[in-house]
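User: Could you go from structure to sequence for me? I need the amino acid at each position, not a summary. C-alpha cells:
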C-alpha cells in the first residue's frame, strides 16, 4: 500500500486509558458504595476477559482463571463479565 494512503489513528485502548487517567486523578471515577464495601478500603483490580482466543475454549480459559485466582489472593478483582465469557 502506498504510504500516503496509510492513516495512523492511534490505539483506542491506550487513548482511552490516557483520557481516563486525568478523570481518575480528578476524582470523577469514584467507586460506588458496593465496590468500596467489597474492597474494604484496599486497592483493587478491574478485569474484563472477552477475546474469543482466551474464553471460547475451557482448555485456554482454565489456566488464565488459575492465574487470576492467584492474583485474587493478594488483591480483590472486580470482574466485569462480558456476555461472551459468561456463556
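Assistant: Here is the amino acid at each position, in order:
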Amino acid at each position: 500500500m502506498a504510504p500516503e494512503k496509510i492513516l495512523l489513528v492511534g490505539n483506542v485502548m491506550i487513548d482511552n486509558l490516557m483520557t481516563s487517567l486525568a478523570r481518575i486523578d480528578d476524582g470523577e471515577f469514584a467507586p460506588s458504595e458496593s465496590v468500596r464495601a467489597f474492597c474494604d478500603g484496599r486497592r483493587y483490580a478491574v478485569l474484563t476477559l472477552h477475546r474469543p482466543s482466551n474464553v471460547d475454549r475451557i482448555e485456554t480459559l482454565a489456566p488464565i482463571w488459575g492465574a487470576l485466582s492467584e492474583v485474587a489472593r493478594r488483591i480483590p478483582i472486580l470482574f466485569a463479565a462480558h456476555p461472551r465469557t459468561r456463556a
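One structural detail worth keeping in mind: The mean pLDDT is 86.
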